[in-house]
Amino acid sequence: MNRVGWSVAFVFSVVLGLYLFIIYDDEQPPSQTDSELSMTPTYEAINLDSKLYDDEGLLSHQVSADKMEHYQQLGFMVFDNPVYTVFLESGEPWRITAEEGTLYGSSRIQLEHNVKIINLNTTEFVKQIQTEYIEINLDQKTLFSDQEVEIFGDNYSVKSIGIQGNLATQQYELKQHVQSQYFPQ
Amino acid sequence: QEADEQSDSEETQHNIATDFQQTIKIRSRNQLLNGKSKTSVLVDEVLILQGSLKITADRVEMNAAAGKGKEVISAIGQAATYQQKLEDGSLVSARASSIKYDVATREISLTGNAQISQNDSTVSADSIAYNMTEQKIIASTDGNSEKTVSTVISVGDFDNSEDKGNEK
Question: Is Phosphoprotein one of the keywords UniProt gives this record (chain A) (predicted)?
């Protein structure tokens, strides 16, 4: 076969190869990589309501949420509009609400946007804590934030940047630029 | 910033006659709040404002256990200071190692190198109790110190409910 014949054969095989690749490429579904797999929730729950008990069988905390997504591989759960009720040995519960919550493991929760921590025991001095971001350890009942926080009581309010505290002992350290107000009676 | 300007302008409008109806504002760098004992410890550059009443200190303990409007504020410092504007526009000012302000009785107790001044009058003693609404001084010295109350009074400045210069 002379030179012209070879070049025609060559062009023909390139075109054929391209044609097959395009067809072949369409049929095979794209394989999900591990990272994509872990980004999709392992399971979801709608209108969730669940109770958690401590080692002695006492109710430690209860959570309800519009929606919960559990990311098993990444090791956390994401809640929409979670409502947490935290129970203490002395029985006074705290109700914690936020627009978003992320639970790491079984006890470390990060709450964001419109976070309210409300003392359901009305005779207590610290009635409510408000912030846009806080991290709570549901087992140790400790809380931490590096954002603006406001604490309210019957006739006072305290505003600060940052807080470290404990809902059980009710000790709170307000970190910076603290402004307290005591309203006249 | 805005809160600062508002407090400063508030301060100028008020005096001892209207101060006690105002909100008590306390600024500090750090604060420990104990919800169980209803107390707070405020530390570093503590400033207390209530209308024209101003107390400064390094450390303040706020005890609200007695209930609303019965807080007791104890200000401790190198020299805690107090100042307030009287109705005639003049200032009464004081300094001591510690100043305790009882919100309910509107009395301040100065302890440790206490000194209170108004116009040209100055009273110095180990401890002084001063009723802000009645502008009454109860000057006293610590029992075991030779120091007597030294009072320099211009007529009518302070209404001192004890005889001047008596020793305790």
Answer: no
Whether the CB-CB separation of A68 and A77 falls below 8 Å is answered with: yes
Q: Do residue B26 and residue A183 have CB atoms under 8 angstroms apart?
A: no
Nearest to B22 among A153, A170, A184 (CB): A184
CA distance B150 to chain A (A): 36
Q: Of all residues in chain B, what percent carry a pLDDT higher than 90?
A: 59
% of chain A beyond a pLDDT of 90: 49
Distance, in Å, from the CA atom of A64 to the CA atom of A92, rounded to the nearest integer, reads 19
* Dihedral of alpha carbons B19, B23, B24, B27, sign: negative
B34-81: per-residue pLDDT in tens?
Answer: 999 999 999 999 999 999 999 999 999 999 999 888 999 999 988 899
Contact list in B for residue A179 (CB cut-off 8 A) is: 3, 25-27
Domain over A41-182 is classified CATH 2.60.450.10: yes
Q: Where are the domains of chain A?
A: 1-30, 41-182
Judge whether A121 and A140 are in contact, CB under 8 Å. no
Which among A126, A176, A185 has CB closest to B69? Answer: A185
Give the closest of B23, B31, B64 to A178, CB-based.
Answer: B31
Query: Looking at chain A, which residue has its C-alpha nearest residue B24?
Result: A182
